[in-house]
Specification:
Elements: E1 19-26, E2 36-43, E3 48-52, H1 59-66, E4 76-79, E5 82-83, H2 89-99, E6 100-103, H3 115-120, H4 122-125, H5 127-136, H6 140-150, H7 168-180, E7 186-190, H8 198-215, E8 218-223, E9 234-237, H9 238-241
Parallel strand pairs: 3-8, 3-9, 6-7, 7-8
Antiparallel strand pairs: 1-2, 1-4, 4-5
């Protein structure tokens, strides 16, 4: 894999990785200590990657960089062959809406919307994901219901309920279906199983893997729970590769 960028700012020739971070040294303010330092991190297309790290190892910082919420001022952050650290804020927002699905630790569902309306929400912000959803199903609602069925939410009585009436496990599946809506190339999961017991965690992950394979999505799953890593294709221990001198301020 080539290490040099091209003159027009595109990814190096032959580099089709979904994520390629190089020579990163991230700090929150110019005079703050470096909290995340990575020589190189590569995630290949279609990979199911488990990133493990305790609190303070830089997990939240890394996810913010991959989603384009935070910006690296030193080093390069390539996602889907686009250099996020070279984009403006609006461009990063559009890129995230079109290409990245995100499962939050606390799910972040919209309480006044039904299950189906929560799942179809990404298609309100991305014509690309709307078009891709309609390629798989005749309507956005049909695609939302297909995803919910695949994630073991096949009870029609649930579908018009407000999400506040659902159990934690059910809300988790709705959040996953929303993140998968429109087949984003990259799916980021931030500790989404922390509120579930062991059997439910494994069941949820296997369903998530199946849907990622079906849609061709790359999965980056971040957690402090090492018991999950055996289910994944590859594990990275973030505390072991974060070369920052001080990690106490790195964030979860």
């Amino acid at each position: 894999m080539s290490d040099g960028t091209t003159a027009n700012g595109q990814a190096p020739a032959g580099d089709a990785a979904v994520i390629h971070i190089r020579d990163l040294a991230f700090r929150w303010q110019p005079r703050d200590p470096v909290v995340l330092a990575l020589d190189e991190l590569v995630v290949e297309r279609g990979e199911q990657l488990f990133i493990e790290g305790p609190s303070g190892s830089g997990k939240s910082t890394l996810l913010g960089l991959l989603a384009g919420v935070s910006v690296a001022r030193q080093g390069e952050v390539w996602v889907l062959e686009q250099r996020l650290d070279a984009m403006g804020a609006a461009a990063r927002d559009h890129f995230r809406a079109h290409h990245i699905g995100y499962i939050f630790q606390m799910f972040n569902l919209i309480p006044y919307l039904s299950m189906v309306d929560n799942v179809t929400l990404p298609c309100r912000f991305s014509t690309r994901r709307r078009q891709q959803a309609l390629q798989r199903s005749p309507s956005l609602e049909a695609e939302a219901l297909r995803l919910l069925r695949h994630l073991d939410m096949d009870e029609p009585a649930f579908h018009r309920r407000p999400v506040t009436a659902l159990s934690v496990g059910q809300q988790q599946r709705v959040a996953a279906a929303r993140a998968l809506m429109g087949s984003p190339e990259l799916l980021i999961a931030d500790e989404p199983t922390s509120a579930l017991d062991g059997d439910r965690r494994e069941s949820f992950l296997r369903l998530l893997f199946d849907e990622c394979r079906a849609s061709g999505s790359t999965l980056v799953f971040v957690s402090h729970d090492r018991s999950l890593e055996g289910l994944f294709q590859r594990t990275i221990r973030l505390a072991g590769i974060n070369g920052a001198v001080t990690t106490s301020a790195a964030g979860g």
